[in-house]
Structures are given as C-alpha cells and as structure tokens.
C-alpha cells in the first residue's frame, strides 16, 4: 500500500513538472512575425530611392525645387530628407524629417509629419490620389499659419518630364489653382547635392 501511494505521488509530481516544463518551452518561443501584405497606398507612393518632386501647389510660394528623398521606410514609419530652395535658387536647404502613417481618415490614407524644431505641432498630409503608372500623387494638408487648405502634386524623378495626364486631371479637379514649384534647374541641385543642412 505504501509503495502504491509513493508511486501515485511520484506520478502526480512528475506530471506537474512535465506541464511546467512544457509551459516554459511555449513561453520562450519567438513572437509571431506580422507578414501580412502592405496595402496602404501611402507606402507605395513614397517607396522609391528617386527624388520625389513637388511640381505645383494651389498657393503662391517663394519655394522652388522642393523634393523628398527616402531615408528609411516601414509599414508605419517614413523617414526622408526634405530639400528646397528659395526663388532665385538661393539659400538651398534640406532637413531630416519623420512621418508616421495613420489609418484611413474618412476615405483617404494619411500621415503625420513630425516637426523637428521646438514645440511646433506636426502636420497631417492626406493622400487624395496615387497613380502607379505615372508615379505621381496628390496630397492635401493645412497651412499651419492661416489654416487654409493646401494642395500639392508630387512626382517621382523618373516621370518628371512626362505628360502626366491623369494626375494633372485630378489635380485640376481637386486643387483649383496651380503655382509651379519645379523648374528645369532643379535636377542640378539634387545631382550635385547643393542642398545644405540647416544650421
């Protein structure tokens, strides 16, 4: 009888130890990797190592040759250089920026561009249109000083000299007015890296 009790206790103890060991093994497994496909059109609109040029805006500006250059990209974060010159191609500048991809804002995907200086608030940019054949996009945001709506056309370098029929049509429908930002001298600034860091 005593031998039977000892065997039962041994079996219970061994079973509990085995379960504990099994639980420990399960808890040390690596976490699952999220390999679900990326569907956010914003990701595809900025996913290029080419410069992306701002070709036109709906408001007059003294900024010319404005472009974005990819530094890093994930499903949630977009790091880029933002370069531009003033009218007359003086005071060329560039700065590192970071944007966080949001979800769907009504019917448009959006990203929040963080401000690097001081305590200024960032800005939301909504992607109103993306054309993966013409490699161009229409973005809207809000002027931080006037709160007026801003509208811009962004074009990859590979198609900057082409006639962008569909993007131009959508821009004209949604942005109402056009003020050029890109001109024929802009290529030299990127190719020769004339843009300098902000002090």
Instruction: Give the H and E element order.
Output: HHEEEEEEEEHEHE
Strand content: 35-45%
Number of domains: 1
Q: How many beta-strand segments? A: 10
Low-confidence stretches: 4-14, 16-25
Architecture, according to CATH?
Answer: Beta Barrel
The H-level CATH homologous superfamily, spelled out, is Calycin beta-barrel core domain
Structural class: alpha+beta
Order of the strands making up the biggest sheet: 1-2-3-4-5-6-7-8
Treating each run of at least 4 consecutive H or I residues as one helix, how many helices?
A: 4
Largest sheet: 8 strands, antiparallel, barrel
Mean pLDDT: 81
Proportion of helical residues: 10-25%
The general outline is: globular
Q: What fold name stands as the CATH topology?
A: Lipocalin
Distance between the termini: 88 Å
Q: What is the CATH class? A: Mainly Beta
Calculate Rg over CA atoms. 27 Å
Could you walk me through the main structural features you see in this protein, from its secondary elements to its overall organization?
- The protein is α+β, with helices and mostly antiparallel strands.
- Helix content is 25%, strand content 39%.
- It is built from four helices and ten strands; from the N terminus they run ααββββββββαβαβ.
- The chain has helices spanning 2-27, 41-46, 165-175, 186-191; strands at residues 52-57, 63-73, 77-86, 90-105, 108-113, 123-131, 136-142, 149-156, 179-180, 196-197.
- A hairpin with a 3-residue loop joins β2 and β3.
């Amino acid at each position: 009888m005593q031998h039977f009790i000892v065997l039962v206790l041994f079996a219970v103890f061994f079973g509990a130890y085995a379960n504990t060991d099994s639980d420990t093994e399960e808890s040390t497994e690596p976490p699952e990797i999220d390999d679900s496909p990326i569907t956010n059109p914003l990701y595809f609109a900025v996913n290029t190592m080419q410069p992306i040029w701002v070709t036109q805006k709906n408001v007059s500006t003294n900024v010319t040759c404005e472009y974005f250059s990819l530094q890093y990209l994930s499903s949630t974060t977009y790091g880029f250089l933002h370069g531009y010159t003033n009218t007359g191609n003086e005071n060329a500048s560039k700065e590192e920026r970071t944007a966080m991809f949001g979800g769907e804002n009504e019917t448009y995907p959006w990203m929040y561009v963080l401000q690097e200086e001081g305590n200024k608030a960032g800005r939301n940019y909504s992607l109103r249109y993306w054309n993966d054949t013409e490699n161009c996009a229409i973005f809207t945001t809000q002027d931080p000083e006037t709160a007026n709506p801003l509208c811009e056309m962004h074009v990859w370098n590979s198609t900057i000299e082409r006639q962008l029929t569909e993007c131009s049509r959508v821009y004209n429908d949604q942005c109402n007015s056009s003020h050029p930002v890109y001109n024929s001298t802009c290529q030299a600034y990127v190719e020769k890296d004339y843009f300098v860091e902000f002090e």
